Amino acid sequence: MEAIQRIHHISAIVGDPNENVRFYRDVLRLRLIKQTVNFDDPGVYHLYFGDHAVTPGTVITFFPWTNNNQGRKGSGQVGRIAFRVPQGSLNHWQEHLTSKDIQVESTQLFGKDTLEFTDIHGLDLAIVEGEETAVNQDILGFHGSVLLSGNPEGTKELLTGRMGLTELESDDQNLHFETVGKEKHHIITLNPPQPAGRFGIGTVHHIAWAVPDEDTLKKWQSALQEDGFGVTVVKDRNYFNSIYMSEKGHVVFEFATIGPGFDVDEDIDSLGTALKLPKQYEHKRQEYETLLPRLDV
Ligand code: ZN
After folding, report:
1. What is the 138 CA–ligand 1 centroid distance (Å)?
2. What pLDDT tens digit does each residue of the chain (297 aa) get?
3. How far is Cα 275 from Cα 91, in angstroms, rounded to an integer?
4. Are 263 and 284 in contact (CB under 8 A)?
5. What is the CA 196 to chain-centroid distance, rounded?
6. How remote is the CA of residue 118 from the centroid of ligand 1, in Å?
7. Would you state the pLDDT for residue 172?
8. Is 47 within 8 Å of 292 (Cβ atoms)?
9. Distance from residue 10's CA to the centre of ligand 1 (Å)
10. I need a surface site. Which of 44, 113, 174, 212 has the fewest CB within 10 A?
């Protein structure tokens, strides 16, 4: 089985959906590419954002909770999510974020200049420059993420073993890995493990890794089961198929197919402009449209 090439998407829990849209669309200049509901909890939106070309591997998704249930960051979660921007654009982003009254801290978290900040709901984010140049300064996709593993050695074993990530230079605090695909997504685990987190607003729910197709997904399911992990059945997520598992550090990993893609239920040009429901919920559309806060898009 081929090594994991890249991140498929990362999904986080945030607060008010309109505040979420304003932050990721207007401040980070991503494109809202899908308005749907959480297929496991359909009274909650599931909002997907990507780059403007809807490039695979640039997708960040949100479950915007309106119940004020704050989470606690800690082990068993994905930590800070880093976006990659074109070479030479870090100053632009520092000035841009500061102009929006966002506090930015300059660090070396990803082994190079890193801008650390939080979104409107306290989700930890970062911006790191890539080696690519571009016509504008927009986000190119993920640079990577931190994993708040409860068992960094166990997490390392899965990442560098079965999943085929490469270990980069690490120190006592941080183990640093990268995916082998052209995106070279960077994954960091922090040592020592923090106290356990609790899911809620301002925390990341899971990270999904891209696999080419459903046959390969089933092979991953068997291989991970052979490794002793509890793995879910294949779930139909409409835009991709997925399996889920908890790795040894209790971080939720999803493995998701690249297709069929976000244009299965709407035109590529109008992605994200209307509420899309999977067929099992279409008959309750009126109920959801009444229940869900109106999105200002
Ligand atoms: Zn997911």
Report:
1. 24
2. 899 999 999 999 999 999 999 999 999 999 999 999 999 999 999 999 999 999 999 999 999 999 999 999 999 999 999 999 999 999 999 999 999 999 999 999 999 999 999 999 999 999 999 999 999 999 999 999 999 999 999 999 999 999 999 999 877 788 999 999 999 999 999 999 999 999 999 999 999 999 999 999 999 999 999 999 999 999 999 999 999 999 999 999 999 999 999 999 999 999 999 999 999 999 999 999 999 999 999
3. 37
4. no
5. 20
6. 21
7. 75
8. no
9. 6
10. 212
Burial 193-206 (b: 16+ CB within 10 A, else e): bbeebebbbbbbbb
Q: Which two tokens stand for residue 71?
A: 């989470």
Ligand 1 center from residue 17 Cα (angstroms): 18
Query: How many angstroms is it from 156 CA to the middle of ligand 1?
Result: 21
Tokens of 262: 């976000």
